[in-house]
User: Which sequence fits this backbone?
């Protein structure tokens, strides 16, 4: 979550540095933006089996990592549409806002089958879903 917050704040920093016409601050916040945007991709490999188990790890990792594929296919076009409609300030503010929302959503992320309100919920080794009443 920390990395997502860094990404979001760096987007607002880019706007501020641009308005201040400070090249060094702009480069600093652009660096932080790149760090925040790229740093969480390597974490996917470690977090995927932690959250979804070792079974079908390659399939689960492929599904998780496919978000980068989707953003690569559609992100450039959508980004240019946002810049055209709202300008660069609007585009960076939108990116920063989305990052902050993602960070808040990440706070709610819980590992399936682990303690929830003080008790452990068993999960099926095949589906990973919680077992209720002996059935999944």
Assistant:
């Amino acid at each position: 979550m920390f990395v997502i917050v860094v990404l979001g704040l760096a987007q607002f920093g880019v706007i501020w540095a641009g308005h201040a016409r400070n090249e060094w601050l702009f480069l600093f916040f652009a660096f932080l933006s790149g760090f925040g945007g790229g740093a969480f991709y390597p974490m996917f490999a470690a977090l995927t089996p932690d959250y979804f188990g070792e079974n079908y790890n390659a399939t689960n990792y492929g599904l998780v990592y496919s978000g980068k594929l989707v953003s690569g296919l559609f992100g450039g076009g959508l980004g240019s549409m946002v810049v055209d409609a709202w300008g660069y300030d609007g585009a960076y503010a939108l990116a920063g806002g989305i990052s902050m929302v993602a960070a808040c959503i990440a706070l709610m992320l819980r590992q399936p089958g682990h303690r929830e309100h003080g008790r452990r919920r068993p999960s099926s080794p095949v589906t990973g879903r919680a077992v209720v009443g002996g059935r999944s």
Summary: The chain has one domain: 2-107.
